[in-house]
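HUMAN: Ready with one sample?

ASSISTANT:
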Amino acid sequence: MIRALVVDDEIHAREELALLLAETGQVEVLATCADAAEAIHAVRQHRPDTIFLDVQMPALTGFDLLALLDPEDLPRIVFVTAHDEFALRAFEENASDYLLKPVDRHRLARTVERLQKGLAAPPPTALATPTIRRIPCLSARGIRLIDTADVEAVRSSEAGVYLQSAGGEHFTELTLRVLEERAGFLRVHKQHLVNADRVEEIELEGEDGATVRTRSGLRVPVSRRFLSALKGRLGL
């Protein structure tokens, strides 16, 4: 049985696809998601084999979503869209398949068969790892996109990962690893990243480490392990 997520901002489209997948008898739809933020959470929660992913969605596209996922969480991807001009880009991203809307039952059956044959092999990694420019964060009204340039630091705790800026803190489903590798933030501690462009001062604390002070006055601990890299990044 293939464990899958369906991600599409159109409720009727995702409900119809979930129904068609269930009718195959070979796919268990673990969850349906309306946007990238929901999908990131669902991927980490359910660890699906496959995502049936809409390409065009508000704020963040299906391609954007792939850039936000931790490589270890990346399942097989089947893009689903009404526009065939995205086909080449889809396969450049190592997609397992590409379906056009409205989804045809017989074409879907071939996709499911292809997925079943590939389950024994590890999923392909995405070739493209574009730089993240905007980070999705949860807000009271839905999703808020924070520009990476506005982020001064990132902290991780048992409660989750939080972006820190002059305007306050924002919760994100992204991992420190993704933010370090794709948003350009610098690791200064096991649980902290900083935006080097927003560092105002480094307060040295003997040989044990240091503390970074950002432009808005945030104080971020720097462990000895990462101090030399921080100095190098800042040209010190």
